[in-house]
Design a protein that fits this description.
The protein is mainly β and 468 residues long. The protein contains 2 helices and 33 strands. The strands form 8 sheets. The protein has a 5-stranded antiparallel sheet. Strands 25, 26, 27, 28 and 29 form a 5-stranded antiparallel sheet that branches.
Amino acid sequence: MKKMSALVMALLVVLALSACAMMSQFAPSASPAPTQTLEDILTPVPEETPTGDATQEPNQPAPQGLGNLPGNLNNGGLILEGEDGTVYVALRNGLYAVRDGKATQLNQDCAHELNLWNGRLYYVAQEYHDTEWDYRELLSESVVSVLADGSDRQVLAEKRPVRRDNFYNAEQELLETSTWYCGYEDLIVADGAIYYIANNANAGSMDVRSSVNGKEGKVSWESDKSIYRMDLDGTHVEEIVANIGAAEPHMCIDGGKIYYSTSYENCFYSYPFVTFRSCNLDGTQDAALLGADYNPNFACGYTSDKGAMTELVSGLLVADGKLYVSATDSEGDLPCSRLMRVDGDGYYEMQEELYYVYTLAREDGSMVWFSAPGQIEWEEDDDGVILMEYFKDAALCFGKPDAEAARAKTLLSFDRLNRWEDEFSWFRIALFDDNLYALTDKALYRIDVTDAEQAVVWTLPEGAKPND
């Protein structure tokens, strides 16, 4: 299997996000005009902080004291359902509030990782640059909070640059330096505080060894990353867990615990070295979830100072007390990922996921995932040039992605899904109790996971696109 670097894979994915045609089973009406005031669609701000206990009303976006669910945040956190039924949607041209088919633009922030806590929205505000190749380059990120009506905008954390500093030594065929400046990663509000991953300016290096060809190499970085916590007003910033990776570490919070992956680049191979760990919300009782030498990819033959397991981790979530991992494949031919589970002393594949539509989970352990067992097919011209890549028999499923997957309920089905031309060639999902939301570049849909009933919540304004 041909492997490519995570950076090249990301560029291929972004260039492919150009869905156009509407799916025939949906027929959304023309976009309603945005309301002039927020009073028509928003209810008053709640006076008390959600507690996340068993007395909460259904469809709250903060079960177990969270501002949004980890699975929703893994899918970009572009959709958020409020206690009063208002749905917040992040588009490239701003943040919107939608209620009863009517929409109001709250501001022009390019928002990511939406959280709602005690009547305020918390999110990562991103700054992009449009390149000449029709590719949006992410330049910087900051942490912002606004009231649910869009007023009282506050910048809680300074603007941080987003970039990669890599040097590949072609003569020696190894990556000598690699640092990812991530801005604010995996931001989540939990129990009245804000948690996130950010660079910490700690330089370091790692020795890598290959048992396949006997090569030895060293990769260094200018800045590691840590897990941080700060108060809701941006004060009292505290480092919870130090030095979890110069590459792409991830975290999630569930049941009062932080679950996270460490990540350091392999100088010989495009998959970084990773470990999986958990700790309390204050960083205490930090423990590994797998043995230090555990390596399901032993055939690759790599070991390092940071472990032996290599994987491209895109996000984490917890269901039924187990840690699930969205693990990316960098084959270069299409966006693809796998749903993995850290269980006891092993790391197991559960389902294939496609188009970076990552699995969502409910408290009862049931999940929503995207599957295309038909695999990829191609249309070519007489010269062998690929005209279209597509999947057959793709579906968005609800159930449990294990031995019971065959009995899962189908929420959306696609006889054929083109990679570039269909509306659902790219979409994001979010789950709040029974309400599953699907956001495309055409509309926001609501699907009831109990009966698969579908409805158009909002037709996007002309020319608007989700913030990808």
